[in-house]
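Hi support team,

I'm filing this because I wasn't sure whether my run with beta-D-galactopyranuronic acid finished correctly. The job status page said complete, but I'd like someone to confirm that the output block is well-formed before I use it downstream. Pasting the exact inputs I used:
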Amino acid sequence: MTRLATCRISRRGMLGFAAGVLAMLAGPLQAADTAFRSADTHGGDYPTVAAVEYMGDLLVERSGGRLDVKVFHSRALGEEKDTIAMVEAGALDIVRTSLAPLNDVVPETRVLSMPFLFRDADHFHTVLSGPIGREILDAFSAHGFIGLAFYDSGARSFYTRETPVRSLADLKGLKIRIQDSDLVAATMRALGAEPVKMPFGQVLTGLLTGIIDGAENNWPSYESTGHFETAGHYTLSRHLMIPEVVVMSKKVWDGLSAEDQALVREAASESQTVMRNLWEARARQSEAAVRAAGVQVYDMEDRDAVRAAVAPVYDQFLTDPRLRSLADRIQAVK
Ligand code: GTR
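And here is everything the job wrote out:
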């Protein structure tokens, strides 16, 4: 991590929830003419929050203090779906979100949310930092958003309270919490599970009360939410590698000068490298922490059967030939 990012994290780490809300009510921070307000569902020490704050540091530096970003983390402004709607309406400037809750709004995001689309992290990075990634970010502008940058999110795997999942048969009928996406719901059904759409902030209660049998997420989310304490079986299914994205409201963007638009784009794009480093470190730490806490980790025994089971989801959700060819082009990237 660079010194800039380190300073920012410790400085901003001191801002608690109450201070964040007060700052929001008081309007833009004093220091900059424009402090873009950005929402994140994760807590203040999560990599996505630090990366967007780093983007803000770059903006402060390069605009001579005119531009900044203030991150309202820990769902201070609402759940992901709510903050996406606020950004679309121009009531909020930026949101860092998973692509899944955007699947119905920006059709191109469905392609990147397909099960087993990416072979591994290298494939993910090559695609997203290349021309296809650019093409998909550009597609956001037809839907009220400006796609600024993709961030890492590892792979999503299942975790359960009681039944360890080692095969498709184990998933049968399990109530699995999912993000708000019809595509992810169809993926769960194809695997035999019963999808339960639930906002991220309610999953812990869902697990504690037994409303759901389990959920699915990457190591850092599994750890940071404390879900591992209630759902201690983690299965390395890696069925989805859904990228994170930083998007700005098109309404806000259209009000910026071309010079400021360029500054915002560059800062967002450079924050991706910081995010990647933070992510790799956090993924390792989170995995080690939950293993040390006694979480049982399993492999999916019938990986080929799992892949075959979700194959029909491609036909179901990529009916538009343009989207299908986008998926084919991604899979053809070496
Ligand atoms: C995380 C992602 C969040 C949120 C969450 C969820 O991996 O970083 O933005 O989408 O998953 O499952 O709701």
